[in-house]
Amino acid sequence: MTASAKPVEAKPGIVAELGTVLREIWESRDLLYQLTRRDITIRYKQAIMGFAWAVLMPLLIVLSGFMIRLAMSKFAGRPLVVTTLAAIAVKALPWAFFVGAIGFATPSLSGNLNLVTKIYFPREVLTLSTVLAQTKDTGVALVALAIMLPFLGVHYSFTVLWVPLLLLLTFVFTAAAGLFLACANLFFRDVKYLVQVFLTFGIFFTPVFYEPVLLGGRAARLVMLNPLAPLLEGMNLAVVRGHNLLTPLLATTSTGETVTIWSAWFLGYSAAWAVGGLLVSLLLFRRLSYLFAEYV
């Protein structure tokens, strides 16, 4: 007699697998909350400045950008308007959130040896907690920025209603990047050093200190390929310039070239990167999680 064939278990599809990941994260929300509280407590334990650190990072970016734009205006012989400082401030806040969250998220797995190797829980919460902890800093800075902007010539209009969506997409994109980099850093420990280099020089490839139109048509289009660029420019246009993000916006460069500086497609592009990147990162994270204990 021939042995009966052993039944083969069907692997769950991608949608079912993602559903399982999201369900487990939701069921571990209490753990996520406790880890977030732990990260915030550790970050501010015995800190002299306390929550003033939340404002310091965006403030340093704004002052650096102001000095660069001041030098550019002097060189071009054009006056520097006060709303330029407001635009830098509005874009500096989400950039500071991204830099801070990625800096803590990248080593989130390699820095939690005991948790990763001893007990089972969705490992994603270790990385997500660092991103959530950064939102507290950003929330403090956001309140300070909202109070400051009217003194910089900003008049709020209905277009500020775009801000929650832009901030949400920034959070989702940051979480996606954090999960991917935390996983990569576990297998290749020099990733954290590459991330630090990117975070140091990435600001020059992201329109924080400048508007893409200043670079000319082709360079402006290349800069907007950065998924963060439309989110930062959207903040500037919606808050400082009172522009509806559903309406296209054109500008003329110093050479007379007409450049599209905003289109609703830009926002869709960033949203696709944010949502798609999060789903891919969660899937990759889960499929490699069985190897984490070996590499921590």
What do you see in this structure?
By secondary structure, the protein is mainly alpha-helical. It has helices at residues 14-27, 29-44, 52-76, 82-105, 113-118, 124-148, 163-187, 191-201, 217-223, 228-240, 264-288, 292-295, and strands at residues 249-252, 258-262. The radius of gyration is 22 Å and the shape is globular.
List unreliable stretches of 5+ residues. Answer: none
Strand percent estimate: under 5%
Number of domains: 1
Q: Sheet bearing the most strands, described?
A: 2 strands, antiparallel
Number of helices: 12
Main structural class: mainly alpha
Distance between the termini: 48 Å
Describe the strand arrangement of the main beta sheet, using strand numbers.
Answer: 1-2
Mind telling me the C-alpha Rg? 22 Å
SSE sequence, one letter per element: HHHHHHHHHHEEHH
Mean pLDDT: 84
| Number of DSSP strand runs | 2
What's a quick, concise take on this entry?
66% of the residues lie in helices and 3% in strands.
Any key phrases for this structure?
two-stranded antiparallel sheet; 296 residues
Topology record:
Layout: H1 14-27, H2 29-44, H3 52-76, H4 82-105, H5 113-118, H6 124-148, H7 163-187, H8 191-201, H9 217-223, H10 228-240, E1 249-252, E2 258-262, H11 264-288, H12 292-295
Antiparallel strand pairs: 1-2
Helix pairs in contact: 1-11, 2-6, 3-4, 3-6, 4-6, 4-7, 4-10, 6-7, 7-10, 7-11, 10-11
